Give the backbone structure.
Amino acid sequence: MKKFKWIFVLTAILTLGASEIGLGSAATIAQAKTVNWQKPSQKKAYPKLKKGDWLKVNIKKQRVYVMRKKQKKALYTMVCSTGIYNSTPRGTFHIQNRGKSFYNKSSKEGAKYWTSWLYNGIYLFHTVPTNKKGKYIKSEAKKLGKPVSHGCIRLTIPDAYWIYKKVPRGTKVHIY
């Protein structure tokens, strides 16, 4: 009888949608699985950027989209973690400076491959958190895909590295 009950629930989710049967949105269910924070978000290659390409951050879906100018479809999608309690600023910003790593004594966390998009080093794209010795904090890394940061946008290691190396200064970042 238990097997039948689960088949019914899964059928209801697929047919009605998760939110209609009180389980939250389909995006929430999709985010429930653990993200491999050591690998790129997608199996396909990162795009080669052209002038006018930009980054779009969807706080509700916990995703960063690499967008091509005048196209509606994303070239690449990254799983992210934005700020807890809506602490990630919303609006349109631009890529600023960048650095290889940082450590914040007050929060006892740091990160690698940071790229600033607001206040020259205050709000960043960066890897999942590291400790004082620069080692990744696995308990924090496992939270990727959920809003848990202090306002920055956390990414997998390769995704943060790609933004750090390939996204030019001045690139538009739209966060909503």
In short: The chain has four helices and nine strands. The chain has two domains: 1-33, 38-175. Helices lie at 2-16, 26-31, 138-141, 157-166. The chain has a mean pLDDT of 87.
